[in-house]
Specification:
Number of strands: 6
Shape: globular
Distance between the termini: 19 Å
Strand content: 15-25%
């Protein structure tokens, strides 16, 4: 499996985790003022609205996310194990203030250009890497708009890492896998929540992961690490090639 294929699985795993936590997700390309160039790429831009409820599934969100009572926006950067746990330079160096301005404009939650500029500067500053800072909480900016209270949280995800390794707070394999397993492989039957259905309803990017988790649930064999997930995707790909 190529590193690119692994990267796609990691991002889709994070999208599934956020989807199960009630977020709408998308990727985002920040265009540059230079011709035919892009300025930055956001792995996942996610938004969750404050009145989200999914009681029929037996859960609403993971406590790890420490949700506030307003609109929550997560700017998710997905890092492989060989990469440093820090945000891309395009979000804190050179023209990064412009990048944040374009991201905030795209969300459509803020109308005042002066407020957008102020928030962009704050976001640019809070994602700057600080040696051995070991942050205990997620980076966060709180703002208000016509839509009420809004939290903007740049969060690092590293699905290949199992242990935090005393780094700044990030979301690792254990949290992602545990929550997905809790949602897709319930211990007891949830009367108002079906567990067998057409998995393509999850969409092309997520249905493969959902199917693999569901297959594991039938055997009560929870994934121990992401390598096991990679291996099962390889088996699926080989079977498709031989079909």
């Amino acid at each position: 499996m190529t590193n690119k294929e692994k990267s796609i699985i990691q991002e889709n795993l994070v999208k599934l985790y956020l989807r199960l936590n009630g977020y709408f997700t998308t990727g985002f390309i920040v265009h540059s003022q230079k011709p035919y160039k892009i300025q930055s790429e956001i792995d996942i831009l996610a938004v969750r609205f404050p009145f989200h409820i999914q009681n029929d599934t037996g859960h609403n969100s993971s406590p790890t996310l420490k949700l506030t009572d307003g609109i929550d926006i997560i700017i998710a950067e997905v890092k492989s194990h060989g990469q440093s746990l820090k945000f891309n330079k395009s979000l804190y160096e050179n023209h990064s203030n412009e990048s944040w301005t374009k991201i905030l404009n795209w969300t459509g939650l803020f109308k005042n250009p002066a407020q957008i500029n102020e928030l962009s500067i704050k976001l640019q500053n809070i994602v700057k890497p600080v040696a051995n800072s070991q942050l205990k909480d997620f980076r966060s900016i709180i703002a208000t708009s016509e839509f009420g209270k809004i939290s903007i949280r740049p969060i690092l995800f590293s699905p290949e890492r199992i242990n935090p390794n005393n780094a700044d707070k990030f979301i690792n394999w254990t949290e992602i896998n545990d929550f997905i397993w809790y949602c897709l492989a319930p211990i007891s039957i949830r009367e108002l929540c079906a567990t067998t259905y057409d998995f393509t309803a999850w969409g092309e990017n997520l249905n493969g992961i959902v199917k693999l988790y569901k297959d594991r649930a039938k055997k009560n064999d929870k994934y121990k690490n992401i390598e096991e997930l990679y291996n099962e995707f390889e088996i699926l790909k080989a079977a498709a090639n031989n079909a």
